[in-house]
Structures are given as structure tokens and as C-alpha cells.
Design goal:
Structural class: mainly alpha
Number of domains: 1
Distance between the termini: 21 Å
Shape: globular
Order of helices and strands: HHHHHH
Strand content: under 5%
Largest sheet: none
Number of helices: 6
Radius of gyration: 17 Å
Number of strands: 0
Length: about 200
């Protein structure tokens, strides 16, 4: 989550390792898509738990790894974002398996993550339009879902599911841009410029 319209290097400068952001974004996108399809009511022919294993293995573990590698890259934003949402997916998986709580539990969890996501959304405006789009759509997803679960509103939960699907596709696009731009060493898929500079 550190690229701009200036193409990212295939290997992050001075680190000797590739940019982990495309992996983290892809892991976030796929797991978000699976759960959002359930929330939107689209996965009627599934058990509704198709997201669960991926919450541990891909959205959780792989995204957490991406966060750790971002620490190695000295990218505080990417490290914080990927590690936090990796922990989110692992925690959500554990909640689903162990807690057997009601929907209001999930509402409070999502409310707490919406607080975190709010300042990350603001700070993402310093990076590029694509990353900002991920955090903006995620913010809207979390707001719709925490209202839906706390108010026991199936309509709001479905709305959160629809927005979550959009979030997943924005994250997939941003991941794809990071992969191809890093491979080519130049902008191939545009990600846009920072929206504004908080330090100016």
C-alpha cells in the first residue's frame, strides 16, 4: 500500500524483497468477497462458511505475513494496515468457531474496526487513489454492517454485503496494479496520485 502513479519497483528499494502489498491486497480481497457474498444473500447454495478457512489461511495468515514484510520495508502504513486486517480475519474466524455469539457481537467488532479504518482512510489519501478507494469502500462496508448487525436489520446487512463485494473488486484491482506495475517497472495499470498532503 505504498505505490503511486510512479511505478513501484519489483524489489523495494534497499530491502532486497519484493513489494508485499499486492499479496496483502489480494488476500484481503478474496476473503472479503467470500464473506460479502454471504452477507449479500448471494451464496444461498453454500453452507455460508465458505469464507471461514480463508479467513485463517489467506485473509488472516497471508495478510499478516504481508504486514510483517511491510515492517521490513519500513512502510508503517502498509505494516499497520495489513497486520491489523490479518488479525481481523483470524479473530473473526476464531469468533465464528469458538464464540458462537449473536449478531450484536459482530456489530460491536465491526464498529471497533470502523474507528480504526477511519483514520487509516484519512491517511490513505496520502498514498494514491486506488488505495484510498479500498479504504473508502471498506469504511462504507463496515458502517453498513455494524448498523445492520446491531439493529438486527437484514436489509442493512445485505447492503453491507453489496458494498463489500465492491470493496473486494477495488482491492483486487489495486493488487493487480501492484503486480503488473512492479513487474514492468513502470505504470501499466493506473493507481492515481495522492489526493492531498496532510503535511502541507
Amino acid at each position: 500500500m505504498s505505490t503511486t502513479d510512479e511505478a513501484p519497483a519489483a524489489v523495494a528499494a534497499g530491502t532486497g524483497i519484493a513489494d508485499p502489498a499486492p499479496l496483502g491486497l489480494a488476500a484481503f480481497a478474496l476473503t472479503t468477497f467470500l464473506l460479502s457474498a454471504v452477507n449479500a444473500g448471494w451464496a444461498k447454495n453454500s453452507s455460508g462458511n465458505d469464507w471461514l478457512g480463508y479467513a485463517f489461511a489467506y485473509g488472516g495468515f497471508c495478510q499478516l505475513l504481508a504486514g510483517m514484510w511491510e515492517f521490513r520495508n519500513r512502510n508503517v502504513f502498509g505494516a499497520t494496515a495489513f497486520s491489523t486486517y490479518g488479525g481481523f480475519w483470524i479473530g473473526l474466524g476464531l469468533w465464528a468457531v469458538l464464540a458462537h455469539g449473536n449478531a450484536k457481537d459482530l456489530g460491536w467488532i465491526l464498529l471497533a474496526f470502523a474507528f480504526f479504518n477511519t483514520y487509516m482512510l484519512i491517511f490513505s489519501s496520502q498514498l494514491n487513489t486506488a488505495v484510498f478507494g479500498v479504504f473508502l469502500t471498506l469504511e462504507l462496508t463496515e458502517i453498513a454492517l455494524f448498523i445492520g448487525f446491531l439493529a438486527n436489520s437484514s436489509g442493512m446487512v445485505k447492503l453491507g454485503g453489496y458494498i463489500g463485494v465492491i470493496t473486494a473488486f477495488v482491492a483486487w484491482y489495486t493488487s493487480a496494479a501492484g503486480v503488473i506495475n512492479g513487474m514492468k517497472g513502470k505504470p501499466v495499470l493506473p493507481v492515481g496520485s495522492p489526493l492531498f498532503n496532510l503535511g502541507s
